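During the reporting period, our protein records have gained a structure token line. A sample record is set out beneath this paragraph:
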Amino acid sequence: MTIEQVRETGPHQILYRDSETGIAWIADGSTGLRYTVHPSIDASGSVQGMKSLGRWAHDARTVACDGFIYNIDELIVFDDNDRIVAAECHCNGRH
């Protein structure tokens, strides 16, 4: 896994992308938040549990990246940060 810094997107905000999986996110150093466009769980979580609870579709494709597991078949876009991430995400999932 190679994490590349793509560019700064605002004060204390850096856009990153995993060159292997294509997953992109913005790390906000002022708040500690991470902006992503795919639902995710911690890498210690259970994909099977998310699917059996109906949170994720049973045929959802997942990708592990930087300590998280992303459901690349769902897309969530609320604001400008999300739109930036969606444009830079190269995960071969839904965009």
User: Anything to note?
Assistant: Residues 80-88 form the longest helix (9 residues). The mean pLDDT is 96. The two ends are 22 Å apart (CA to CA). The helical segments are 47-52, 80-88.
